[in-house]
C-alpha cells in the first residue's frame, strides 16, 4: 500500500510517499480502507516533535512513522474476535495515539470506530472526530448566557465550538488572524479579535477562556477572567502547559478562578453526537481544502501555518 512516512522530526519536507506492507488486523481489530483523513494540530506537533510532549515514546525518532488520526473509510478485513463491523461497512473515528491515517489502509481496534452517518461524505466524516470531541468538551464548560472566548478559533475545533456555543446561548468572542474574522462571524461569533493587532487578555472579563494554541502567561489569562471564571488550554507550548499545571493552580486559588488543561475523553461517544447533528444539518462541517495523498506535506504546511478556515482533509481514495 501507499503511505506517507517520516523517519525524523522536522518540517513537512521530511515526509515522503512510500510503498509499505499492508497491515494485518490483530485480535479485536479491523482493517480500514482509508478514503479520507483530516489534519490535526497533533499531526503538526508529531511531525516537528514539538512541544516536548509530542516526543513521548520517541525522544529522538518518531515511534509512529505514519501520521494521521482522524479517518473515514470502509472495513476491508476483520480480525479474530472483532464483531461490531462487517467487510464493506462505512466507518469513521479518531485513531490517536496509534496514528497511521495517511495511508491507504490502517489496522485499528474496532472500539475506536463508529458507523459513518450516510448523510455525511467520507471527507466530512474524517473532519469530525478529534475536533468534535474537543469542541464538545469545551462548550460543556459554558452555561447559557456565559461569556466565552476561543483563541485559535478558525480551525476545526474552533469552527465547531463556535456553532455549538452559539446554539447553546453562549456569548462567543473568537480570536484568530485578520483573514479569518469574517469566517468566524459567519459561524456565529458575537465578537472577533485579530490577535496580531489586539491582546485578547486585555478584554473581558470572560467566564470561560478556551485556548487552542496557548502561549500566554497564567497572569495574563487570570486578568481576563471573571470571578469564578475558568481558563483551559487544549494545545500550546510545553512551557505554558507546565505553568498551567503548577503556577496556574496556585494563582487560581488566589484569584478564585480556575486555570488548567481541558481533559478530552476519546472514543466514539465523544464525537458521534456532533456527527449526528451535522448529519441532521444543525451544525456545518467546515472544510477549507482537500489534498490528495501525495500532497500531505502541502496539507500539513497549509494547516500548520494557520491558513485553513476550518479543516484540511486528505482524500486517499
Give an overview in words.
The chain is of the alpha/beta class and 317 residues long. The protein has helices at residues 41-48, 122-126, 129-139, 156-167, 181-187, 218-223, 238-245, 247-255, 268-279, 296-304; strands spanning 2-5, 16-19, 29-38, 70-78, 90-94, 105-109, 113-115, 147-151, 171-176, 191-194, 206-211, 225-233, 258-261, 287-292, 311-315. Strands 3, 4, 5, 6, 7, 14 and 15 form a seven-stranded mixed sheet that branches. The protein has a six-stranded parallel sheet with strand order 10-9-8-11-12-13. β9, α5 and β10 (191-194) form a beta-alpha-beta unit. It starts with a strand and ends with a strand. The model has no long low-confidence stretch (mean pLDDT 94).
Outline of this structure?
With 317 residues, this protein is of the alpha/beta class. The protein has helices at residues 41-48, 122-126, 129-139, 156-167, 181-187, 218-223, 238-245, 247-255, 268-279, 296-304; strands spanning 2-5, 16-19, 29-38, 70-78, 90-94, 105-109, 113-115, 147-151, 171-176, 191-194, 206-211, 225-233, 258-261, 287-292, 311-315. The protein has ten helices and 15 strands.
